[in-house]
Amino acid sequence: MSGERLTIKTPDGEFSAYVARPAAAKAPAVVVIQEIFGVNAVMREITDELAAAGYLAICPDLFWRIEPGIDITDRSKEEWDRAFELFNAFDVDKGVEDIQATVDLIRKDPGCNGKVGSVGYCLGGKLAFLTATRTDVDAAVAYYGVGLDSLTGEAQKITRPLLMHIATEDGFVPKEAQAAIHAALDNHPLITIHDYVGRDHAFARTGGDHYDAGDAALANQRTLDFFKANLG
């Protein structure tokens, strides 16, 4: 396993992605979709951990259209302010297109066996949901996705499995939004939703203010089990 950089070309320009390769010569791939802090140490660590678990993992720089190479933390007010500026400037539709370009590239990689999944956190959780509705990923996982209550109508387009992790005390996803998500998606045959009672947003972000080791481990194991079942 080693970290490397790949370049992904689109009609609008090119951007980079952090890649971690597993020990196996061929493996399923997983696209890691960033939070609002860019491809930072937390995202690179997740990518590395997926490679250690046997996946060809790739984390694209989805903020490249605003500013390439964003790498900030959740440790200061200035960084939080910058993160929300990026979030507000981000074009979700273009972001999904960039994820599809990432999927296309990694699916053709000599180290990929042809299967590709996605996993996203926060903003990335929203994008992971949209990969299930708008791209050809084989399986998707969304951790505490934001704004999903306004996107549930797209669920009719889902043809591959989707796993969702919801924090019941998520400061960015109000109770009424959670209720709307459950009402719209609970009975969908391809969607599995797990609630984490008492947890706040980003409970799986290592080092974050709301990190909970127990539920983070539970969610991460459920994610690995889901990928094993659906990506092989």
Automatic annotation (TrEMBL):
Transmembrane segments: none annotated. Gene3D superfamilies: alpha/beta hydrolase. This is Carboxymethylenebutenolidase. InterPro entries: AB_hydrolase_fold, Dienelactn_hydro, Dienelactone_hydrolase-like. It holds the Pfam family DLH. GO terms for molecular function: hydrolase activity. Residues 15-229 form the Dienelactone hydrolase domain. It comes from Caulobacter mirabilis.
